[in-house]
Every structure is written in C-alpha cells, then in structure tokens.
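This protein record is not my work; I was only asked to verify it. Take the sequence as given and treat only the tokens as open to question. I have pasted the whole thing underneath without changing anything:
***
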Amino acid sequence: MAGKIELVLTAEFKEAYKKLPQGIKKKVRKQLHYLQDNPTHPSLQIHKLNDEREFYIDIFYRCFFLRQADKFTLLTVGTHKLVDRYKRK
C-alpha cells in the first residue's frame, strides 16, 4: 500500500462513536491513526470475519470495517459483543 489509507466513516460508525466513553474515544482515535498510517501495526490485531474486518480498540472494544484497496470504510465501533453480530452472517 502506497501512502496513507483513506478512512470513510459511515453514519452508523459516527453514531456508535458518539456513545462511547471518553477514554475509549481516545483509544479509538489512536487506533485509527495506526490504521491509516500503518495497517499492519501489531496493536490493531486485524481479523477477517466474513467480508468485514475487525481491529482491536482494547480488550473489550472492536471496530469493524470494509477494505477496498487503500480505502477502509468504518462500519461501527463498540464492545466485543459486535463480533457475535458479524459472525452470524
């Protein structure tokens, strides 16, 4: 991948982000920085679930996204319970 990754935030992601505790929002911003500048950063621990991918915010929170070349569309962010939603597809 050449250059920075383009991050596209969906309406669902924006709404979910607004509801997060302040401390988690700070962690999300840090992880988004890694995702955009270095998507192979070990703290992201990216996994593929069906057509979506997830990365770690911390042990309890995850973010889901779609990858299209150098553009990542952020779908939602929240607790680890989101994994169950995406595994069921």
User: Anything to note?
Assistant: The chain is about 35% helix and 35% strand. Strands lie at 6-9, 47-49, 52-56, 61-68, 71-79. The chain has one domain: 1-51+74-89.
